[in-house]
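Cross-check.
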Amino acid sequence: MDSASQDFQPRMFSIKLWPPSESTRLMLVERMTKNLSTESIFSRKYGLLGKEEAHENAKRIEQLCFTSADEHFKKEPDGDGSSAVQLYAKDTSKLMLEVLKRGPGTTAESEAPMAVTPLESGDTVLDISGGKRAFIEAEEAKELLSPLTKPGNSYKRICFSNRSFGVDAANVAGPILESVKNQLTEVDISDFVAGRPEDEALDVMRIFSKALEGSVLRYLNISDNALGEKGVRAFSELLKSQENLEELYVMNDGISEDAAKALSELIPSTLKLKVLHFHNNMTGDEGAVYVAEMVKESPNLENFRCSATRIGSDGGVALSEALGACTHLKKLDLRDNLFGVDAGIALSKTLPNLPDLVEIYLSDLNLENKGTIAVLNALKQSAPQLEVLELAGNEINAKAAPAVAECLTAMQSLKKLTLAENELKDEGAVIIAKSLEDGHADLKELDVSTNMFQRVGARCFARAVANKPGFVLLNINGNFISDEGIDEVKDILKAAKNSLDVLGSLDENDPEGEPDDEDDDDAENDDDEDELDSKLQNVQVEQDD
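Predicted model, tokenized:
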């Protein structure tokens, strides 16, 4: 062998799976759009999304998941991007399922209304959010924001949601906002960089942040901007100057652990905070610790929403303990997390400190009987004035029914009760229905769908609500009620004060008593392929176990 052959060293090639190309990202958006707008078991239950709405949701999901996976990629030790791709695909499936479960026509814009205080006389609100989502260029920005440039204007509240600002438009908006920042009290810049490349979106956020720095706001909405940690820090100057916030909305923003940490570090004071909404983020247990720190420093909090944020047992315990400082809390929404029994018990120990609760949403928390009973025993003592109680999807069965019934008996102001997607069966249904028969004159909605009960349970619930004035909806769908049982329910309602109009849809009732198994568990299969496209080729809705 000659020296040249001996000196030859084979070149080592490494395949980088991250980041995906722009064409791959667009392909994923189109595939998600098709999945979201195609008839399925979810659309039959929650409604079918239109193509346009599906496409908008697909774009938002992709951006959120890309931001989260990109942050992960920068920390992963192997450096080839394989774990980032897996996270990208997994998160995409998770968020698609959440969109399908929300159904058509529900967007984050409607979850945080701009006008939360009575309108004042004169032109005090500039709202350019109407119409279809659109890109804003410099000239249009100048025209749309011209009312803010008029001498002596009295605008105090602005809403730029649903309009996508590029850098040129932001450079026009910046000086205008800076000129009126001292009179502004409410700012909604949710969903104002949609469809922009990340670098441009971050520049836009920095321009707005610098322009609004030093404003004394009571309301700030920065939802739907796929922030991640970089986005939160792009708003640094604005956030650091806010010591009087009463309402803060950070929903659908890809708030990971690092982003939650940044948020808690940047806002100097939450002492006056009354409303804090973190809905639909990627916070997890680690991020929940930083959210809990903010909550602990918000003694005047009245409305807290931290639903669909992937918080498990440890984070749930931390959050539950922190809520003990919020003694003025009236509305608590923790739905769709992975709390489990331990976090449920921790929450039950906090509830006695929340005597003003009026609405509590605890669906899909995996509380099981033990956690549910602990929570209900606490609520029975601390919040008999409760008007809304949601406990759907917590694996509650007939063994917990006596505790549920005892709690409901104490809650005579209840207007809405949701116990859907549990396992009460006839035995539990009879006990709970009996507790609702007497009193509860204000009850308007009862949802006990998908609880495995049959004719007996259905009749009992019908009797329980038949004569309640103002009652509007009885949902017993998704159970195993015979045709004769349905006829009996209708007869009970017709013979009483309430008409058949209060009976909800029965399209998923199964008179044969066979459970409707959703067995197409099409979770993503990671087959360790070396190509990125193959890993994303079959992204589908990942169903709950």
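Confidence is low (pLDDT under 50) at residues 1-14, 106-122, 515-531. Residues 133 and 162 are 5 Å apart (CA to CA). Passed to J.P. for a second look.
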